């Protein structure tokens, strides 16, 4: 796409435009197009190919039929705000006032955008883990802020605590934490969460946590950062119904924050989308109210899928670390003789009829070297799809 002077400086910076003034397609778009044009199995993008809980889908149909089709209230429908507050109490023992501490948003993405745009001044620093969900860099760029990162390295993808201490300074306005983590599937342990809270206090920073994979953990408990002692007063907790209930297209997300932080965020959110998803909001409330066993079953189903794909990738010759959570497994192509995962991803449709994305898509260009041979594959797909992908990958080493 040519952009003859149409872009503001912040937008150019945020979108990482090339010096040629061109907006290059993201690797996600490139890989999805490749999957479509080659008829390959698309394990690149993280969306499920099965429907979620019947009750949730039925509730949305009922809400449409019952006429819930106009603008909902700016803060979100009361029944969903109450369900979010009940959910935080039931799963995490976290008391939340639905009237003053909850805001419903257009997915976690809008919650992140409204929060960062409300809290950041140009030049403020934001510390995130790296690799990072790609929207973080873009939103930080749009806010005119500076992105600092702490690297997660294979095989366990946990941050080095000394590096974390060094990254957070008096210039840090926000520590943006993503646990469980996309793309690595790691979950931050209590010790790391405590350090983050200590650092936020020491440097007077705000903690923003992205917990969209909170219910998709395998053998490890999710601990919201806000439940760590003295974290609550300076923490914005963000989540979404998309991943838990296989409703990524509904874009119903939310945030929980103390009223002093919520006010400015609501003000910004009001002029982003204003509101969204009127009939989907009460449906997500139904989902959040499902019994605990249903949440356990959702995680178990994904854990089985994780194991199938991880076994397939190992058998094909990739180096694999089992993720503790989320939708994705990271596979190292170096044992197969590939140092450049982006090049492998471009060839993988021909070699195996499968698409993944290189982990460098989640990393600042100057840090690509650390992640060059890693590919992210999604396992939130039907079992037969994962089995077929595994079978197709099986002979990979003979074909390379
Ligand atoms: C870490 C992380 N945060 C946020 C999102 C976006 O969530 P939503 O679709 O609710 O905006 C995703 C989706 O992939 C994600 O992986």
Bound molecules: pyridoxal-5'-phosphate
How would you classify the quaternary structure?
A: single chain
On the 0 to 100 scale, the average pLDDT is 95
Radius of gyration over all CA atoms, rounded: 21 Å
User: CATH superfamily name of the largest domain?
Assistant: Type I PLP-dependent aspartate aminotransferase-like (Major domain)
Q: Helix/strand/pairing class, anyone?
A: alpha/beta
Which class of the largest domain in CATH terms? Alpha Beta
Strand content: 15-25%
**Contiguous helical run count:** 14
- What name does CATH use for the topology of the largest domain? Aspartate Aminotransferase, domain 2
Spatial strand sequence of the major β-sheet? 2-9-8-7-6-3-4-5
Helix content: 40-55%
How many strand units? Answer: 14
For the biggest sheet, the summary is:
8 strands, mixed
**Strand and helix order:** HHEHHEHEHEEHEHEEEHHHEEHEEEHH
- For the termini, the CA-CA separation is 34 Å
Structurally, how many domains make up the residues? 2
């Amino acid at each position: 796409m040519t952009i003859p002077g149409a872009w503001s400086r912040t937008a150019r910076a945020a979108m990482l435009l090339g010096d040629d003034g061109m907006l290059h397609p993201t690797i996600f778009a490139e890989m999805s197009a490749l999957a479509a044009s080659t008829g390959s199995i698309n394990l690149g993008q993280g969306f499920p190919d099965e429907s979620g809980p019947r009750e949730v889908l039925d509730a949305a149909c009922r809400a449409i039929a019952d006429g819930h089709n106009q603008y909902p209230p700016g803060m979100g429908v009361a029944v969903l705000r109450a369900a979010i507050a009940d959910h935080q109490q039931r799963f995490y023992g976290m008391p939340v006032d639905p009237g003053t501490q909850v805001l419903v948003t257009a997915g976690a993405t809008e919650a992140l955008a409204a929060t960062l745009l409300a809290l950041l001044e140009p030049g403020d620093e934001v510390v995130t883990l790296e690799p990072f969900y790609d929207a973080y860099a873009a939103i930080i760029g749009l806010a005119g802020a500076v992105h600092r990162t702490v690297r997660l390295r294979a095989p366990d993808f946990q941050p080095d605590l000394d590096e974390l201490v060094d990254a957070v300074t008096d210039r840090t306005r926000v520590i943006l934490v993503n646990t469980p983590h996309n793309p690595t599937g790691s979950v931050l342990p209590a010790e790391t969460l405590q350090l983050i809270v200590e650092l936020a206090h020491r440097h007077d920073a705000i903690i923003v946590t992205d917990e969209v994979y909170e219910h998709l953990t395998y053998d490890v408990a999710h601990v919201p950062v806000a439940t760590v002692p003295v974290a609550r007063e300076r923490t914005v907790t963000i989540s979404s119904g998309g991943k838990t209930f296989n409703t990524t297209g509904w874009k119903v997300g939310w945030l929980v924050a103390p009223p002093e932080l919520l006010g400015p965020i609501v003000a910004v959110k009001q002029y982003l989308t204003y509101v969204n998803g009127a009939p989907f909001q009460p449906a997500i409330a139904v989902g959040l109210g499902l019994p605990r066993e249903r949440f356990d079953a959702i995680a178990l189903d994904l854990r089985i899928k994780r194991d199938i794909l991880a076994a397939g990738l190992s058998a094909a010759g990739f180096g694999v670390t089992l993720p503790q959570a989320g939708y994705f497994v990271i596979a190292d192509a170096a044992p197969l003789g590939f140092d450049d995962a982006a090049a492998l991803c471009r060839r993988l449709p021909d070699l195996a009829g499968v698409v993944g994305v290189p982990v460098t898509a989640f990393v600042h260009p100057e840090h690509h070297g650390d992640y060059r041979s890693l590919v992210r594959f999604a396992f939130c797909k039907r079992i037969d799809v994962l089995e077929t992908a595994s079978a197709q990958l099986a002979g990979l080493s003979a074909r390379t």
